[in-house]
Design brief:
About 60% of the residues lie in helices and about 0% in strands. It has eight helices and two strands; from the N terminus they run ααααααββαα.
Length: about 190
């Protein structure tokens, strides 16, 4: 799935509980952070025509999609959040939602089904794959992203903050005001 889909999944999950701005950001980040290993694409693209290309993305993408990294992320969430246990549990769930989304919808254009080495590096016995994995740009991924955007807008109108709040509270106030003006006026006239 795309980073946008993972981000929106985390943000929607963070809004299932009464969390403050910081804790919502932590849970949202937990849904995206498994793909930090995908940054290897930069080195791979920059060195692809060299005599010794760095295949960091091809060889290591999904290397952090593991139980151990999920526990690390939940531990960090516990240490950094205000509502420690709730935020850590939601971060753990957000991380696993990322894994689920990748399991069902991250097949590459070459047909490669990205495996998830859940117990790596201690064991290669439990590697998750699904033969029905749809392509990264398949319609189910697009529908899921659109649905998450719809829920995000609904939450922003209803709760008074959006994912923009993670980056800038001032910008978020403008975004939410515009959304509330647009959607509350429409519902009042309907």
């Amino acid at each position: 799935m795309s980073p946008v889909t993972h981000f929106l999944t985390g943000w929607v999950l963070a809004n299932t509980a009464d969390l403050g701005r910081r804790d919502r950001a932590i849970v949202t980040l937990a849904a995206v952070v498994p793909d930090v290993d995908g940054l290897g694409i930069v080195a791979e693209l920059l060195t692809r025509h060299s005599q010794h290309p760095l295949l960091w993305f091809s060889q290591y993408h999904h290397a952090l999609h593991t139980l151990w990294f999920a526990l690390f992320v939940a531990g960090c969430a516990f240490c950094l959040s205000q509502r420690r246990w709730l935020s850590a549990c939601l971060a753990f769930i957000a991380f696993h939602l990322h894994l689920l989304e990748d399991l069902v919808g991250s097949r590459g254009p070459d047909g490669f089904n990205w495996p998830i080495p859940y117990l790596f590096p201690l064991s290669q016995r439990w590697v998750w794959t699904w033969q029905g994995q749809w392509a990264l740009n398949a319609w189910p991924n697009i529908v899921l992203t659109i649905a998450l955007l719809g829920v995000t807008v609904w939450l922003a109108v209803r709760r008074g903050f959006s994912p923009v709040d993670i980056f800038s509270p001032a910008a978020d106030r403008s975004v939410v005001a515009a959304l509330q003006k647009r959607f509350r006026s429409n519902s009042a006239t309907a």
